[in-house]
Amino acid sequence: MRTLISTAFVSLDGVVEAPGGEPGYRNSGWTFKHTEFLPEAFEIKGREQKEATAMLMGRVSYESFSPVWPDMEDFADYKVMPKYVVSTTLAEDDLVSNWGETTILRSLDDVAALKETEGGPIIVHGSASLNQALSDAGLIDRYHLLVFPLLLGAGKRLFSATDKDAQKLRLVEHEAYANGLQKDVFDVVR
Fold it and tell me: How do residues 142-176 score in pLDDT, each as one tens digit?
């Protein structure tokens, strides 16, 4: 079974919305506006590209990333990687042609079936709503979190407010940086 890894920039109060400057959110761009950049704190982002064998995202993240990421040197490894977009509304005609093989999945059952295929880890970027649904369905195996020393208040959260049984996590990697960022890598305990 393939490992599904959720990777996120998250504020201390759990917000993941618009970390890179996406429009429409009051605190848009919070990852670079309020925290000094230290390259060593982002080492995990390069490692993710080397270790992942596929990328999964929701429609909104796909529509944000696909016009920009294919031409960015920082994301070159993702260009050739198979991509999967979970959406009930996206059509084949909506897919960009310069970002490699992209497959539309229509349900969480399709994601579960993808996890059953042969291959290495699948990385989930952005995709707040999808992350919540995947977590609630028990489909995420690992979390890569870069926690920013910020309280943002309102905004899309990484985790849902669904009333459910406790889900235990095991901390497998942790580091704190001089700029206040924390890297937390958790495996989901089954």
Answer: 999 999 999 999 999 999 999 999 999 999 999 99
Side-chain-side CA neighbours of 23 within 13 Å: the count stands at: 1
d(CA 24, CA 90): 21
Q: What is the dihedral of CA 71, 77, 80, 83, to 10 degrees?
A: -90
Its sign, for the CA torsion 29, 27, 79, 48, is positive
Two tokens, residue 74: 């920082």
How far apart are the C-alpha atoms of 43 and 87, rounded to whole Å?
A: 30
Question: Which residues of the chain fall below pLDDT 70?
Answer: none
Whole-number Å distance between alpha carbons of 76 and 23: 24
